Amino acid sequence: MRDNRRGKNGEYLLTLAIETSCDETSAAVLKNGREVLSNVISTQIEQHKKFGGVVPEVASRKHVENVDMVIQDALDEAGVSLRQIDHIGVTYGPGLVGALLVGVSTAKAMAYALNIPLIGVNHIEGHIYANFIEDPTLEPPFLCLIVSGGHSHLAYIKDYGRYEIMGKTRDDAVGEAFDKVARAMELGYPGGPIIDQLAKQGDPNAIHFPRVYLENDSYDFSFSGLKSAVLNYLNSQRQKGEGIKVEDVAASFQQAVMEVLIHKTLEGAKQKNVDKIVLAGGVAANSALREGLKKKAAALGFDVKYPSLQLCTDNAAMIGCAAYYNYLKGNTADLYLNAVPNLKLGQLYEKHR
């Protein structure tokens, strides 16, 4: 989809994007949707480490403290002023309601003051669009595996803004399972990167953990049973007074997760007869997933793409890209836009008259 409109800057449109769905305060400026002029991220990991996870109230307060400074930093880094911005995109769901409200309120106030369009962006959609930034030549259709701390989706991307959800988690999201297993082993937070590194030093066949594939024709995921199996193993070893080799636990757990993710993704790609498979979300940074999927996909003739590490985690650049393409489709919001913590992929906001 190419733009035939012109913004305030003549031959291109500038998007200001804001992301505050969880514990990163981020703002970005993009040129014509895919060229990132700035992408500033203020993380709260250190504040939440002592709790072993994100505390919603703490996250909201930090967003309030940081959002204005982060936006100004993004404008300064891009070398543009607010008066040059053509429209504002903001994450309005899914996510933590208090955190979302900080970004939504800020974006609405700025859109009103500047008299420019406001675009509400689905956070999951943003993760998909990170790939359009990473690869300027990427175009739909393709299959996308979206895996993060709060979401696990297998989606067929028919076109910009048109999705078919083939499968999703029935219980724990992938990243959530990683964090819970890491917490049980007292490894720290966030658990995903820690387990990924430990697994490189362990034996993935040392411990057999269950692989949950569900029904034969299902593309859904379930990781709660696997997580419980790991916790039961750890408790059993401790009760028997036997040692626990955390590297082997990490490797065996990760292998069980990746086998299911890769199998279902490849089966989905076969069903949809696509030639491109795309990864998105924080868990897309996992080295075993990247390498394992790429290797098995290549043998079947599928091309696998994934974003750089910074674009895998929550960031405003991906929100800006999604906002741009929503703007081209006329999907603008009014000033009644509100946070929707359980927003579904493909669900559009209601407009008030």
Brief descriptors of the model:
Nucleotidyltransferase, domain 5; alpha/beta; five-stranded mixed sheet; globular; 2 domains; tRNA N(6)-L-threonylcarbamoyladenine synthase activity; single chain
Kindly describe this structure:
It is found in: Cytoplasm. Fe cation binds at residues 123, 127, 314. By secondary structure, the chain is of the alpha/beta class. It folds into two domains: 14-129 and 312-328, Nucleotidyltransferase, domain 5; 140-307, ATPase, nucleotide binding domain (Nucleotidyltransferase, domain 5). It has eleven helices and ten strands. It has helices at 45-49, 56-78, 97-114, 123-134, 174-184, 191-199, 224-239, 246-272, 287-299, 309-312, 316-328, and strands spanning 14-19, 24-31, 35-43, 87-93, 118-122, 142-147, 152-159, 162-168, 276-280, 303-305. A five-stranded mixed beta sheet has the order 3-2-1-4-5, with helices on both faces.
